[in-house]
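Fig. S4 source data, part A: sequence.
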Amino acid sequence: MSEKVRAGVALTGSFCTFERAFTAIEKLISQGYDITPIMSKNASTIDTRFGKAADHIARLEAMCGKKVIRTIEEAEPLGPKKLLDILVVAPCTANTAAKLALGITDTPVTMAVKSHLRNARPVVIAISTNDALAGNAKNIGHLQNFKNYYFVPYKQDAPDKKPTSAVADFGRLSETIEQALAGRQIQPVLI
């Protein structure tokens, strides 16, 4: 890549996919992307069996060489100042997807998306939720029909044990971003 693409990468509270997100971010950095890390309040404050919030923040800041955006106030200037070429929400929980589908702006991540979209720039969604094929299906469907939203291909996650769960293929994040920057949805979306 000749000129660095400025990509925001926002993590929401699907803690079980954080390691996949970190691996994808490392790959983007190795490909020359300039990454601005963003975290939802839950992602940046809740300790889980998948790690401590402070450790996740420290890891992101070390990888990206930038402070993690963790407040609505810090996220708001992203759009007016045109600080990003593309914004990625990876992982994107059902809660965040529902808020985006309904235009609710009450977290650092939803503010980052709203602010970024004011410039008609692409937003990539890497869905990760246990109710993708249940209560959240309508919200995912709405987002897939909105202009400037692009989805990382996703599939059912352990359908025998969790029949309504779906997770993005984080290994395809880079190519999804490339297609989104060209105004195209990578295909197939459902894998």
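Fig. S4 source data, part B ends here. Helices lie at 18-30, 41-45, 53-64, 72-75, 94-102, 108-117, 137-145, 173-181.
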